[in-house]
Amino acid sequence: MKFTELNLNDALMKAIKRSGFEEATPIQAQTIPLAMAGKDVIGQAQTGTGKTAAFGLPILQQLDKHHKAIQAVIIEPTRELAIQTQEELFRLGRDEHAHVQVVYGGADIGRQIRSLKKTPEVLVGTPGRLLDHLKRKTIDLSQVQTVVLDEADEMLDMGFIQDIESILNYAVNRKQTLLFSATMPKPILRIGEKFMNDPEVVQIKAKELTADLIDQYFVRVKESEKFDTMCRLIDVQGPDLAVVFGRTKRRVDELTRGLQARGYNAAGIHGDLTQARRMTVLKRFKAGKLDILVATDVAARGLDISGVTHVYNYDIPQDPDSYVHRIGRTGRAGKNGISVTFVTPNELGYLRTIERLTKKKMSPLRPPTNDEALHGQLKQAKSQIEELMQSDLSKYGDDANELLENYSALDLAAALLKSLSKDNAAKVEITPEKPLPFKSGRSHRGHGRGHGHGARHGHFDNNRRKGRGKRNQARKSGRHDFVIKKKHKA
Ligand SMILES: Nc1ncnc2c1ncn2[C@@H]1O[C@H](COP(=O)(O)OP(=O)(O)OP(=O)(O)O)[C@@H](O)[C@H]1O
Ligand SMILES: [Mg+2]
């Protein structure tokens, strides 16, 4: 559908054009008119299909520029995602001078308070920091018309639900609630509906839950052989930009060090790093100055980094929804992507559970041999040399001649290839993680849903302890009637 059919104002049409969007995506075409009509909407569509603009455009269109108050709040599960959403809404609202601000944990609150004095019309934030400001009375949500829960299933899950309820209680005059996510488990959907007024549910029907553009593979491998296998696969596949997901923070640290030792340009991101460090790593990755981002599930949801060609699940996610989001970091906005999930023999049950949720079978991939890996590396080295050949090499002439007097051209070329390839002999030890508990692969969808999400939230907004307390509370009160399983801390 053309954006011109959506009755958006001229300023927004200009921003859409500038962004290079030609047609509205299906989720945008179906939810924008509903949201502009003031309806409550639950929107579910595959990763990378433009859900941010689907809620962002109607919000920007409906702003009352003469009213100096926060009119819309968008709640995001991670700091990075809050920043990204603020940036996208700022870009889209630039021509109508919309004032969009972001608040998140791990950053100087004094500075946030000072800039909040200018009263943004749209506020994006993480739950913990939003509540912090609300308690300090440094934000006023009483004039808020629209609240968005992006990654809604995550926001309504155990770790966040009470924070969300508290925030909603401050938005006393709220007229509209919008829920968006690529995954929407039924029990969570029902929780969401409690906060909504006769919501319209828009589910973009796709054959598969995962983005269509991602080719999904798995490799069966022993825990002790995983790291070498992944390195060889990276050599063979030669990703432009890759994200490697690990289950725990220790895992991410070890994988990062291991990849660096082997000569890969990698850096890690997880919840124990300072916010400044997290932002630096992400910025370098976005700018293409890093080839591999190693991450816990903190980077699984929502992040939109163009150019990610490969996602490697070094550890299989325990939670099928998390799989959908993780691999959704590639195959975005019409581009293709590849995902590879490493599975140890006793984790095959998890693989089948994931396939049942996504309605898509992963193709088995044979681990590459050392020779294939070397061949892959040399192919990349040769293309690097070709690039070098295009550059100005004149100032190296004299020294090159000197080398040619002592060595043959053949040996020199071989030495160059060697220096450009990676050191796959570097010994790397990755501490084995306790395998996931055995799963037969025969359990049904609906079982084991929504489990243990609280464990993931610690790194999102400094509310780890609170999150855990709430989870126990939720369990006692029996409010969440689906299975809760303990998950390793990301
Ligand atoms: N109509 C459009 N045409 C082309 N590109 C678009 C369009 N709408 C959004 N995009 C771009 O597509 C990319 C993905 O959008 P977005 O991050 O909103 O996806 P999403 O559906 O929220 O994904 P996720 O489920 O991973 O959060 C962004 O770079 C965005 O700018
Ligand atoms: Mg999104």
From TrEMBL:
Ranges of compositional bias, category Basic residues: 441-457, 465-478
Record's keyword terms, sorted: ATP-binding, Cytoplasm, Helicase, Hydrolase, Nucleotide-binding, RNA-binding, Stress response
Keyword Hydrolase included in the entry's annotation: yes
Subcellular location: Cytoplasm
Gene Ontology terms, MF aspect: ATP binding; hydrolase activity; RNA helicase activity; RNA strand annealing activity
UniProt xrefs under InterPro entries: DEAD/DEAH_box_helicase_dom, DEAD/DEAH_RhlB, DEAD_box_RNA_helicases, DEAD_helicase_CshA, Helicase_ATP-bd, Helicase_C-like, P-loop_NTPase, RNA-helicase_DEAD-box_CS
Motif Q motif: positions: 1-29
Pfam family membership, one: Helicase_C
EC number: 3.6.4.13
Protein origin, superkingdom: Bacteria
Region called Disordered, residue ranges: 432-490
Gene3D superfamilies from the UniProt entry: P-loop containing nucleotide triphosphate hydrolases (3.40.50.300)
CDD domains recorded: DEADc, SF2_C_DEAD
Keyword Aminoacyl-tRNA synthetase on entry: no
GO cellular component term of the entry, any: ribosome
Domain Helicase C-terminal span(s) in chain numbering: 213-373
GO BP: response to cold; RNA catabolic process
Residue intervals of the DEAD-box RNA helicase Q domain: 1-29
Family: Belongs to the DEAD box helicase family. CshA subfamily.
Subunit annotation: Oligomerizes, may be a member of the RNA degradosome.
Function: DEAD-box RNA helicase possibly involved in RNA degradation. Unwinds dsRNA in both 5'- and 3'-directions, has RNA-dependent ATPase activity.
Name the UniProt record assigns to this protein: DEAD-box ATP-dependent RNA helicase CshA
Organism field: Lactobacillus corticis
